[in-house]
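ok here's Fumarylacetoacetate hydrolase family protein:
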Amino acid sequence: MRIGNLGGRAHLVRGNLAIDIAKASDGAFGPEPGDLFARWPEFLEWAVTARTDAAVPYRAEDLRAPVPRPRQVFAVGLNYAEHAAETGLRAGGVPSVFTKFADALTGPHGRITLSGPSVDWEVELVVVIAREARDVAEKDAWAYVAGLTAGQDFSDRDVQMSGTPPQFSLGKSYPGFGPTGPVLVTPDEIDLAAPIRLRCWINDELVQDGHTGQMILPVGALIERISAVCTLHPGDLLFTGTPAGVGMGRTPPRYLAAGDVVRTSIDGIGEMRHVFAAGDAG
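and the structure:
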């Protein structure tokens, strides 16, 4: 199934129609999107029987972040070998894990303010955790996944690379630098045995075109490694890394400018669109 956030309320999304979950369930489930995960098995059981007479048309532009207030946001760097090579950084079998602070999260459409002259793009598959996960084996990891959504790990490279060691989390956490959407898609709707294609365009120029088969550590391995250290909670987000094609890997480097339109697409999930605006000093 596909779950969207319209006006801060959780909806089942079916084609161009949406069903308000709280209303359709007569209050059995609340309107807050993040609250669904506390009763995820019950919600899934109810959702397949949800009445469709309450479905109404919606505009894609009105969708917000599917999980607007996660408890934790994990992100993984250098999880695609070609991306690691283009940045000049070394990738290995141990994931480079950081956080994007929750204030960076935003929805799948809208305007984002540039933080400076070195803002870069990174299309990423984002995993949403369904239930508490601690010491999870890779082979069992998908049982802890509520769904998948598209994400962008926008990054201010000057801030990220300042200092020793670099400031990954700060450089990637300006307002709007963590868009997700357009919807949360449950794993049963996606062929997980096949690579999932990720693409990003800047002003209609295709700049990234990769797939999850290129990951160094797949989703299950990431969940195993992270849950061995941190407890993952229902609704937590995991940004799983980006394929090659980012701006800092180009010669000369290329970064976003005011007026640039970034379009992000993941097959089976959907598309996001963001316009960048100059900051106070832009």
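+1. Helices lie at 21-24, 40-47, 81-87, 157-160, 168-171, 219-227.
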